């Protein structure tokens, strides 16, 4: 097989390791954040952990495809499908919490998306998959269940994506300083990048599309890192004071409080 598969597996490995490392850094610095920000912070820790757990098995299965081990390729596809099915759960909690400030509301809605994720997996495992179709650049599978596809597209993808867009619109409608826009918009754009292109990766039927989707997921992780840990030049230009201690003030109420200072 072509070295393109090895390139794809390398990108997956970079995504997996960087996502898990990012989650660990956020968790390690959780004591620096205000108490009311921690539920949303922990939801992001879970989100990035699930991204990492999705792509590490994907890295190994791509190597398996390179070596011609199709059985292992399929097994690892099913393994990576588990964290992938629940990526939207912490994302929904994160968005609901920073809009409403209600932990209970976030938990209730997250439970609904947990059930949808479980339903997706149930139909996926029951109906199975078609493939792999191994090319020079990718190992492609097709989900053999229209119900599973529709559950993910309508329930687990469209709704969270609409929430992200709605939150971005809410932010843009407010007159906020550039430093606050940086601290709110860039993380949401990064999360959207990762979330959207993860789905594109899974449903891709063209090998090049899958490789570029993984590349954009990696770019999204870099954007997220820059959002939390901006370069010094950006800090100086946007006057981000004490950024290390206050990088997680996403809630609209917190932003308004900062404007009032």
From TrEMBL:
Lineage of origin: Archaea, Methanobacteriati, Methanobacteriota, Stenosarchaea group, Methanomicrobia
Ranges that cross the membrane: 6-28, 40-63, 75-99, 108-127, 147-173, 185-206, 212-229
Protein name stated in the entry: Histidine kinase N-terminal 7TM region domain-containing protein
Keywords, sorted A to Z: Membrane, Transmembrane, Transmembrane helix
Superkingdom of the organism of origin: Archaea
């Amino acid at each position: 097989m072509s070295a393109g598969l090895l390139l794809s597996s390398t990108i997956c490995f970079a995504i997996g390791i960087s996502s898990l490392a990012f989650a660990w850094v956020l968790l390690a610095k959780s004591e620096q954040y205000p108490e009311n920000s921690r539920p949303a912070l922990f939801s992001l820790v879970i989100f990035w952990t699930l991204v990492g757990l999705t792509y590490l098995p994907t890295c190994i299965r791509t190597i398996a495809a390179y070596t011609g081990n199709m059985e292992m390729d399929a097994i690892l596809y099913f393994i990576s499908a588990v964290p992938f099915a629940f990526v939207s759960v912490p994302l929904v909690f994160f968005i609901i919490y920073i809009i409403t400030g209600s932990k209970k509301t976030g938990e209730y809605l997250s439970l609904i998306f947990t059930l949808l994720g479980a339903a997706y997996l149930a139909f996926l495992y029951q109906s199975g998959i078609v493939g792999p179709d191994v090319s020079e650049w990718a190992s492609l599978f097709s989900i053999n269940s229209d119900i599973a596809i529709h559950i993910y597209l309508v329930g687990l993808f469209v709704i969270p994506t609409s929430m992200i867009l709605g939150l971005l619109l809410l932010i843009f409608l407010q007159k906020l300083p550039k430093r606050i826009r940086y601290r709110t918009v860039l993380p949401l754009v990064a999360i959207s990048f990762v979330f959207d292109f993860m789905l594109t990766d899974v449903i891709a039927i063209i090998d090049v599309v899958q490789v570029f989707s993984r590349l954009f997921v990696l770019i999204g992780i870099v954007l997220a890192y820059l959002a939390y840990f901006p370069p010094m030049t950006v800090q100086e230009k946007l006057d981000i004071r004490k950024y290390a201690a206050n990088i997680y003030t996403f809630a609209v109420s917190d932003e308004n409080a900062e404007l009032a200072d």
